[in-house]
Amino acid sequence: MPTLVSVAECVSPISTETAGPFPGDGSQGARLNVLARSGVVRQDIRTSLGTGNLAAGIPLRLELKLVRASGDYAPLAGYALYAWHCDAQGRYSMYSSGVEGEDYLRGVQAADANGIVVFQTTFPGCYPGRWPHVHFEIYPALDQATSVRNVVHTSQLALPEEICRQVYADPQYGNSLNNLGRLSIERDGIFRDGWQTQMATVTGSLNDGLVARLIIGVPGV
What we know:
single chain, 4-stranded mixed sheet, about 220 residues, 8 strands, mainly beta
């Protein structure tokens, strides 16, 4: 399976986006800060730290490469990335009705020497009004990925329509296919001002496994 290669040319800065209403990063109080919970630094984010419950959905491997978006465009080794997204039903752990007591699909990883972070997760669903996406915050180091006060950049990753339609044909994704049919990325409230730097490349298949990759040019570091 191919992996993200070294950066040999300019990488455009990724757009800054809102963390949204369900960040779980301490910005809404200590009770809603998954970053302070033991075990949040993990590659596999499919289970809840407290309950051990597993999020339903088709497996997805996220491979994200952090690079400086100016100067030498060097990999940002040692930087940390906090990723989170909704489940197959479009619900956010810690917030949405029925999953307030869960904290699955949230986790932190430090970038390796090549600037790469990897998460094993599930393909996010599509809820009304938003294009399928993954949220992330970038921190200057793993020991600083404990509070939103230390964030250096916040953005979102978009997922391609074709693979979304394939995934959402699975019954466990509920109304996701219908919700997607009412949307276009051009009209999405977040991505409509430009999504080119945020659109992931997805390879693989539903049977053999899906991998979403994105090179993230981090500005101002």
